Amino acid sequence: MTLPRKHMFALPEGVIYLDGNSLGPLPKGAATRAIEVIEAEWGSELIRAWNTADWISLPTRVGNRIGGLIGAPAGSVATGDTLSIKVYQALAAALKMRPGRRVVLSDSGNFPTDLYMAQGLIGTMDKGYELCTPAPEDVKDAITEEVAAVMLTHVDYRSGRMHDMKAITEEAHAAGAVMIWDLAHSAGAVAVDMVNSNAEFAVGCTYKYLNGGPGAPAFIYARPDIVEAVEPALAGWMGHEAPFAMELCYRPVMSTERLRVGTPPIVQLSILDAALDAWEGVDMAELRAASIALSETFITEAAIRCPQLTLASPLEAELRGSQVSFAFEHGYAAMQALIDRGVIGDFRAPNVMRFGFSPLYLDMDDVCSAVDILEYVMRNELWRDPKFRSKSRVT
Ligand SMILES: *Cc1c(COP(=O)(O)O)cnc(C)c1O
Hints:
395 residues; Aspartate Aminotransferase, domain 1; Aspartate Aminotransferase, domain 2; 2 domains; 7-stranded mixed beta sheet; 4-stranded antiparallel beta sheet; 13 strands; 35% helix; globular; binds pyridoxal-5'-phosphate
């Protein structure tokens, strides 16, 4: 099956959805599955469903499906919790692996929650750790032998700029540091090969390009050869070797599953499992090529027809993820005006209009229509309308 696969998504009539980088749309099968799990499994089977509907192995099954999209071997990806928690766990494990070192290296383009989790963790540890956040282009030079862990987001949430995963991982390893990649804007957006990257850890969320729904569980990858060195900071019973033996002491299971914490969110995991059906048979190289074609057309057309906008993403496709950002002083209001006309993107402070391109449900006609509407909004200065200026809590 080729791309796009619009028939698999329940997109509202009259909407061009360019915000799948923030919250993917509803896959049709996900709604059916949610009702089935709630009524037939939970409703009828009650607690028996852990066995009869095999809820107990759902986190592992879903982890393996995500693994297939990021070049990770079976059994190396655990699911559950939210991405913030997974960042905390990966960093805590990495710091334990390098006890003599005291620097956590990230960058100033990282998503705030990743930095907050690092700050919270090193504050609790109280061992003199320091979090360094140089500009993204200066990260490589900041990798020294004091660095315990390099913790970066692969694709920048604001600009779409993409780090060179393999090259930075190599630098980190050459200096003896542990590498952690956040794939929030990479999984389902660009081709990722965890095995080839050789990084120790990767984390990500599933409600963006993977379309798992609001609050969908996160994932964490640990390189198989280091799993036994991972000492979970959040030693929950679902990461125990024998959860139902109810032992008094923690004994981690000999797999990435030791990075699970508590009871898995079965309804959300089932929705995600159904959402992943849209990825069956997708060739990530083909997806990437389609994403580049859509993004390039958008950039080229918008540059010609909307001179008020300044490209805030790398122009070169290889340096960009699957989103395009434009800076504009009245970006918030302009985005509201666009949304009012059916083109949904989003806004990130201070002035960035973001547009995500998912080839699963977007084609070139969508991109051309979106540019037409963008041009109309800009040419007629619709952003001047006061009704587009009052900010909602979520932008
Ligand atoms: C979206 C995103 C998050 C969100 O974390 P949650 O715990 O799922 O709310 C974290 N980090 C990055 C890099 C993101 O893009």
